[in-house]
Design goal:
This protein is mainly alpha-helical. The chain has one domain. The chain is 55% helix and 3% strand. The protein is built from 13 helices and 2 strands, in the order ααααααααααββααα. Strands 1-2 form a two-stranded antiparallel sheet. It is globular, with a radius of gyration of 20 Å.
Protein backbone atom coordinates (compact mmCIF):
# COMPACT_ATOMS: atom_id res chain seq x y z
CA UNK A 1 0.00 0.00 0.00
CA UNK A 2 1.25 3.45 -0.83
CA UNK A 3 1.83 5.89 1.97
CA UNK A 4 -0.63 8.68 2.70
CA UNK A 5 2.09 11.08 1.60
CA UNK A 6 2.24 9.40 -1.81
CA UNK A 7 -1.54 9.65 -2.31
CA UNK A 8 -1.84 13.22 -1.03
CA UNK A 9 0.96 14.56 -3.20
CA UNK A 10 -0.39 12.79 -6.28
CA UNK A 11 3.07 12.15 -7.69
CA UNK A 12 2.82 9.38 -10.24
CA UNK A 13 5.27 6.60 -10.82
CA UNK A 14 6.46 5.74 -7.33
CA UNK A 15 5.47 2.77 -5.23
CA UNK A 16 6.23 4.82 -2.10
CA UNK A 17 8.02 8.01 -1.24
CA UNK A 18 8.61 10.13 1.86
CA UNK A 19 6.55 13.29 2.44
CA UNK A 20 7.14 15.83 -0.31
CA UNK A 21 8.79 18.15 -0.97
CA UNK A 22 11.95 16.56 0.41
CA UNK A 23 14.43 18.84 2.10
CA UNK A 24 18.16 18.62 2.52
CA UNK A 25 19.93 18.37 5.84
CA UNK A 26 19.37 21.57 7.87
CA UNK A 27 23.10 22.16 8.29
CA UNK A 28 24.10 24.67 5.63
CA UNK A 29 20.91 26.71 5.53
CA UNK A 30 20.67 30.42 6.22
CA UNK A 31 19.74 31.82 8.59
CA UNK A 32 21.34 29.08 10.66
CA UNK A 33 18.98 26.81 12.57
CA UNK A 34 21.14 25.19 15.27
CA UNK A 35 18.33 23.24 16.98
CA UNK A 36 17.10 21.69 13.72
CA UNK A 37 20.68 20.94 12.74
CA UNK A 38 21.36 19.22 16.07
CA UNK A 39 18.18 17.13 15.82
CA UNK A 40 19.17 16.01 12.31
CA UNK A 41 22.74 15.19 13.33
CA UNK A 42 21.71 13.12 16.37
CA UNK A 43 18.87 11.39 14.54
CA UNK A 44 18.57 7.69 13.80
CA UNK A 45 18.72 8.62 10.11
CA UNK A 46 22.24 10.10 10.22
CA UNK A 47 24.09 9.36 13.46
CA UNK A 48 22.39 6.04 14.16
CA UNK A 49 22.27 4.61 10.64
CA UNK A 50 25.31 6.04 8.90
CA UNK A 51 27.97 7.65 11.06
CA UNK A 52 28.14 5.39 14.12
CA UNK A 53 27.71 2.06 12.25
CA UNK A 54 30.62 2.93 9.93
CA UNK A 55 32.79 4.10 12.81
CA UNK A 56 32.03 0.80 14.52
CA UNK A 57 32.67 -1.36 11.46
CA UNK A 58 35.91 0.43 10.62
CA UNK A 59 37.09 0.05 14.23
CA UNK A 60 36.41 -3.70 14.10
CA UNK A 61 38.25 -3.90 10.77
CA UNK A 62 41.26 -2.00 12.13
CA UNK A 63 41.55 -3.77 15.48
CA UNK A 64 40.65 -7.34 14.54
CA UNK A 65 40.86 -7.75 10.75
CA UNK A 66 43.80 -5.63 9.65
CA UNK A 67 47.40 -6.79 9.20
CA UNK A 68 49.87 -5.29 11.63
CA UNK A 69 50.90 -1.92 10.25
CA UNK A 70 54.60 -2.81 10.57
CA UNK A 71 54.09 -5.46 7.88
CA UNK A 72 52.85 -2.81 5.45
CA UNK A 73 56.31 -1.23 5.14
CA UNK A 74 57.15 -3.79 2.47
CA UNK A 75 54.71 -4.29 -0.45
CA UNK A 76 54.09 -8.00 0.00
CA UNK A 77 51.22 -10.00 -1.46
CA UNK A 78 50.31 -11.57 1.88
CA UNK A 79 49.03 -8.54 3.77
CA UNK A 80 47.51 -7.08 0.60
CA UNK A 81 45.44 -10.23 0.06
CA UNK A 82 44.32 -10.06 3.70
CA UNK A 83 42.92 -6.57 3.16
CA UNK A 84 41.26 -7.59 -0.11
CA UNK A 85 39.66 -10.66 1.49
CA UNK A 86 38.36 -8.57 4.38
CA UNK A 87 36.90 -5.93 2.08
CA UNK A 88 35.34 -8.54 -0.17
CA UNK A 89 33.81 -10.21 2.87
CA UNK A 90 32.34 -6.89 4.06
CA UNK A 91 30.90 -6.23 0.61
CA UNK A 92 29.29 -9.65 0.34
CA UNK A 93 27.96 -9.47 3.89
CA UNK A 94 26.36 -6.02 3.54
CA UNK A 95 25.31 -5.84 -0.13
CA UNK A 96 24.54 -9.53 -0.34
CA UNK A 97 22.68 -9.52 2.95
CA UNK A 98 20.49 -6.57 1.98
CA UNK A 99 19.82 -8.09 -1.44
CA UNK A 100 18.75 -11.42 0.07
CA UNK A 101 16.58 -9.69 2.66
CA UNK A 102 14.79 -7.31 0.30
CA UNK A 103 14.94 -8.96 -3.12
CA UNK A 104 15.36 -12.71 -2.66
CA UNK A 105 13.16 -13.44 0.33
CA UNK A 106 11.26 -10.12 0.12
CA UNK A 107 11.00 -9.90 3.88
CA UNK A 108 9.62 -6.37 3.66
CA UNK A 109 7.47 -6.79 0.56
CA UNK A 110 6.93 -3.39 -1.06
CA UNK A 111 6.71 -1.41 2.19
CA UNK A 112 8.82 1.74 1.91
CA UNK A 113 10.12 0.60 -1.48
CA UNK A 114 10.56 3.56 -3.81
CA UNK A 115 10.31 1.96 -7.25
CA UNK A 116 8.04 -1.02 -7.89
CA UNK A 117 10.03 -2.14 -10.94
CA UNK A 118 12.07 -5.31 -10.53
CA UNK A 119 15.79 -5.58 -11.18
CA UNK A 120 16.41 -6.40 -14.85
CA UNK A 121 16.62 -9.97 -16.09
CA UNK A 122 17.38 -11.34 -19.55
CA UNK A 123 18.69 -7.93 -20.62
CA UNK A 124 21.62 -7.99 -23.06
CA UNK A 125 22.99 -4.71 -21.66
CA UNK A 126 24.15 -6.52 -18.52
CA UNK A 127 26.92 -9.05 -17.94
CA UNK A 128 25.24 -12.47 -17.93
CA UNK A 129 22.05 -10.74 -19.13
CA UNK A 130 21.24 -10.16 -15.46
CA UNK A 131 21.38 -6.84 -13.61
CA UNK A 132 22.30 -8.57 -10.35
CA UNK A 133 25.15 -10.61 -11.89
CA UNK A 134 26.38 -7.51 -13.72
CA UNK A 135 26.29 -5.40 -10.55
CA UNK A 136 28.10 -8.05 -8.51
CA UNK A 137 30.78 -8.31 -11.19
CA UNK A 138 31.53 -4.58 -11.37
CA UNK A 139 31.19 -4.08 -7.61
CA UNK A 140 33.64 -6.85 -6.77
CA UNK A 141 36.01 -7.15 -9.73
CA UNK A 142 36.55 -3.41 -10.05
CA UNK A 143 35.02 -1.81 -6.95
CA UNK A 144 36.49 -3.98 -4.19
CA UNK A 145 39.81 -4.18 -6.04
CA UNK A 146 40.21 -0.40 -6.32
CA UNK A 147 38.84 0.15 -2.80
CA UNK A 148 41.55 -2.22 -1.58
CA UNK A 149 44.23 -0.61 -3.75
CA UNK A 150 43.42 2.79 -2.25
CA UNK A 151 43.67 1.38 1.26
CA UNK A 152 46.93 -0.44 0.48
CA UNK A 153 48.59 2.75 -0.76
CA UNK A 154 47.67 4.62 2.40
CA UNK A 155 48.72 1.79 4.72
CA UNK A 156 52.10 1.62 2.98
CA UNK A 157 52.47 5.42 3.23
CA UNK A 158 51.66 5.39 6.95
CA UNK A 159 53.89 2.38 7.68
CA UNK A 160 56.87 3.76 5.75
CA UNK A 161 56.66 7.21 7.31
CA UNK A 162 55.60 9.06 4.16
CA UNK A 163 52.45 10.16 6.00
CA UNK A 164 52.42 11.13 9.67
CA UNK A 165 50.04 9.18 11.89
CA UNK A 166 47.70 11.19 14.08
CA UNK A 167 47.40 9.47 17.46
CA UNK A 168 44.39 9.83 19.74
CA UNK A 169 46.64 11.36 22.40
CA UNK A 170 47.90 14.00 19.96
CA UNK A 171 44.51 15.63 19.55
CA UNK A 172 41.48 13.68 20.77
CA UNK A 173 39.10 16.44 19.63
CA UNK A 174 40.37 16.45 16.04
CA UNK A 175 40.66 12.65 16.04
CA UNK A 176 36.94 12.37 16.78
CA UNK A 177 35.87 15.37 14.71
CA UNK A 178 37.44 13.97 11.56
CA UNK A 179 34.84 11.19 11.50
CA UNK A 180 32.22 13.95 11.21
CA UNK A 181 34.16 15.94 8.60
CA UNK A 182 34.41 12.99 6.18
CA UNK A 183 30.69 12.77 5.19
CA UNK A 184 30.51 16.49 4.44
CA UNK A 185 33.78 16.50 2.49
CA UNK A 186 32.55 13.45 0.58
CA UNK A 187 29.33 15.28 -0.27
CA UNK A 188 31.25 18.15 -1.89
CA UNK A 189 33.70 15.83 -3.65
CA UNK A 190 30.90 13.61 -4.97
CA UNK A 191 28.99 16.58 -6.38
CA UNK A 192 32.07 17.81 -8.26
CA UNK A 193 33.07 14.47 -9.79
CA UNK A 194 29.44 13.60 -10.51
CA UNK A 195 28.97 16.75 -12.57
CA UNK A 196 32.10 15.76 -14.51
CA UNK A 197 30.72 12.26 -15.03
CA UNK A 198 27.57 13.74 -16.57
CA UNK A 199 29.56 15.68 -19.18
CA UNK A 200 28.39 13.94 -22.35
CA UNK A 201 31.70 12.44 -23.58
CA UNK A 202 32.50 11.14 -20.09
CA UNK A 203 28.94 9.99 -19.48
CA UNK A 204 28.73 7.94 -22.67
CA UNK A 205 32.05 6.16 -22.17
CA UNK A 206 32.12 5.79 -18.37
CA UNK A 207 29.14 6.81 -16.24
CA UNK A 208 26.47 5.24 -18.48
CA UNK A 209 27.53 1.86 -17.06
CA UNK A 210 26.24 2.88 -13.63
CA UNK A 211 23.09 4.51 -15.02
CA UNK A 212 21.93 1.33 -16.70
CA UNK A 213 20.62 0.69 -13.21
CA UNK A 214 17.30 2.54 -13.24
CA UNK A 215 15.60 0.20 -10.79
CA UNK A 216 18.37 -0.06 -8.23
CA UNK A 217 19.39 -2.56 -5.58
CA UNK A 218 22.18 -2.90 -3.00
CA UNK A 219 24.66 -4.29 -5.54
CA UNK A 220 24.07 -1.23 -7.76
CA UNK A 221 25.80 1.13 -5.32
CA UNK A 222 29.37 0.77 -6.56
CA UNK A 223 28.60 -0.97 -9.85
CA UNK A 224 30.75 1.41 -11.86
CA UNK A 225 33.32 1.67 -14.61
CA UNK A 226 36.88 1.34 -13.22
CA UNK A 227 37.66 4.95 -14.14
CA UNK A 228 34.63 6.07 -12.19
CA UNK A 229 35.84 4.02 -9.23
CA UNK A 230 39.17 5.85 -9.37
CA UNK A 231 37.38 9.20 -9.34
CA UNK A 232 34.98 8.11 -6.62
CA UNK A 233 37.67 6.80 -4.28
CA UNK A 234 39.84 9.87 -4.87
CA UNK A 235 37.83 11.43 -2.06
CA UNK A 236 40.45 9.97 0.30
CA UNK A 237 43.02 12.55 -0.89
CA UNK A 238 41.68 14.48 2.09
CA UNK A 239 44.02 12.42 4.27
CA UNK A 240 47.06 13.57 2.31
CA UNK A 241 46.54 17.13 3.53
CA UNK A 242 44.91 16.81 6.96
CA UNK A 243 46.32 14.95 9.99
CA UNK A 244 44.77 11.48 10.04
CA UNK A 245 45.11 7.96 11.39
CA UNK A 246 44.83 4.74 9.34
CA UNK A 247 41.49 4.19 11.06
CA UNK A 248 40.18 7.36 9.43
CA UNK A 249 41.13 6.08 5.97
CA UNK A 250 39.44 2.73 6.61
CA UNK A 251 36.34 4.59 7.83
CA UNK A 252 36.38 6.94 4.83
CA UNK A 253 36.54 4.09 2.33
CA UNK A 254 33.85 2.09 4.11
CA UNK A 255 31.67 5.19 4.17
CA UNK A 256 32.09 5.53 0.39
CA UNK A 257 31.34 1.88 -0.33
CA UNK A 258 28.74 0.93 2.25
CA UNK A 259 27.07 4.33 2.02
CA UNK A 260 26.52 3.70 -1.69
CA UNK A 261 25.20 0.21 -0.95
CA UNK A 262 22.70 1.65 1.52
CA UNK A 263 21.63 4.59 -0.62
CA UNK A 264 20.98 2.31 -3.62
CA UNK A 265 19.08 -0.45 -1.82
CA UNK A 266 15.74 0.87 -3.12
CA UNK A 267 14.05 0.97 0.28
CA UNK A 268 13.85 3.89 2.67
CA UNK A 269 14.15 1.89 5.90
CA UNK A 270 14.27 -1.47 7.55
CA UNK A 271 10.89 -1.88 9.21
CA UNK A 272 10.13 -3.92 12.30
CA UNK A 273 6.40 -4.31 12.96
CA UNK A 274 5.78 -1.36 10.69
CA UNK A 275 8.23 0.90 12.48
CA UNK A 276 11.41 2.24 10.86
CA UNK A 277 14.40 1.11 12.93
CA UNK A 278 17.29 1.72 10.51
CA UNK A 279 17.58 4.21 7.65
CA UNK A 280 18.79 2.84 4.32
CA UNK A 281 17.74 4.23 0.97
CA UNK A 282 17.99 7.78 -0.20
CA UNK A 283 15.04 9.19 -2.14
CA UNK A 284 17.19 12.20 -3.00
CA UNK A 285 19.52 9.94 -5.01
CA UNK A 286 16.68 7.73 -6.22
CA UNK A 287 15.37 10.81 -8.03
CA UNK A 288 18.74 11.15 -9.76
CA UNK A 289 18.51 7.60 -11.10
CA UNK A 290 15.08 8.35 -12.54
CA UNK A 291 15.67 11.84 -13.97
CA UNK A 292 19.49 11.80 -14.44
CA UNK A 293 20.06 15.59 -14.54
CA UNK A 294 19.35 16.49 -10.94
CA UNK A 295 20.54 15.76 -7.40
CA UNK A 296 24.18 15.20 -8.32
CA UNK A 297 25.46 15.43 -4.76
CA UNK A 298 24.01 14.33 -1.44
CA UNK A 299 21.56 16.08 0.82
CA UNK A 300 24.23 16.71 3.48
CA UNK A 301 25.49 19.82 1.67
CA UNK A 302 23.00 21.86 -0.36
CA UNK A 303 25.10 22.21 -3.55
CA UNK A 304 22.28 21.05 -5.82
CA UNK A 305 19.97 23.66 -4.36
CA UNK A 306 22.60 26.39 -4.70
CA UNK A 307 23.43 25.50 -8.32
CA UNK A 308 19.88 24.89 -9.53
CA UNK A 309 19.94 21.10 -9.95
CA UNK A 310 17.82 20.20 -6.92
CA UNK A 311 14.74 17.99 -7.41
CA UNK A 312 12.45 17.92 -4.37
CA UNK A 313 10.35 15.00 -5.62
CA UNK A 314 7.29 17.00 -6.62
CA UNK A 315 5.58 17.08 -9.99
CA UNK A 316 6.42 20.77 -10.28
CA UNK A 317 10.13 20.01 -9.99
CA UNK A 318 9.80 17.44 -12.78
CA UNK A 319 7.97 19.96 -14.98
CA UNK A 320 10.68 22.52 -14.27
CA UNK A 321 13.38 20.11 -15.43
CA UNK A 322 11.39 19.36 -18.57
CA UNK A 323 10.83 23.05 -19.35
CA UNK A 324 14.58 23.64 -19.17
CA UNK A 325 15.29 20.65 -21.41
CA UNK A 326 17.05 18.83 -18.58
CA UNK A 327 14.57 16.14 -17.68
CA UNK A 328 15.16 12.55 -18.65
CA UNK A 329 13.05 9.88 -17.10
CA UNK A 330 14.61 6.47 -16.61
Amino acid sequence: MKSMAARDDNVAGWNWHPPLPIEGAPIFVFPLQPLRAARWFFSVGFLGSFLLPYVGSSLVAWVFLHPDLARCVTPEIGWMVEIFARNLGIMVLVAGGLHVYFHTYRRQGSAHRFDARELARDDPRFVGRSQVIDNIFWSCASGVTLWTASEILFMWAYASGHLPILAWDDSPVWFGLLFVVVPFWQSVHFYLIHRLLHWKPVYRSIHALHHRNVAIGPWSGISMHPIEHVLYFSSVVLHLVVPSHPLHVIFHLQFLVLGAVQSHCGYQDILVRGRAVFALGDFFHQLHHRYFTCNYGTDYVQLDRWFGSFHDGTSEATRRLTRHGRGRSG
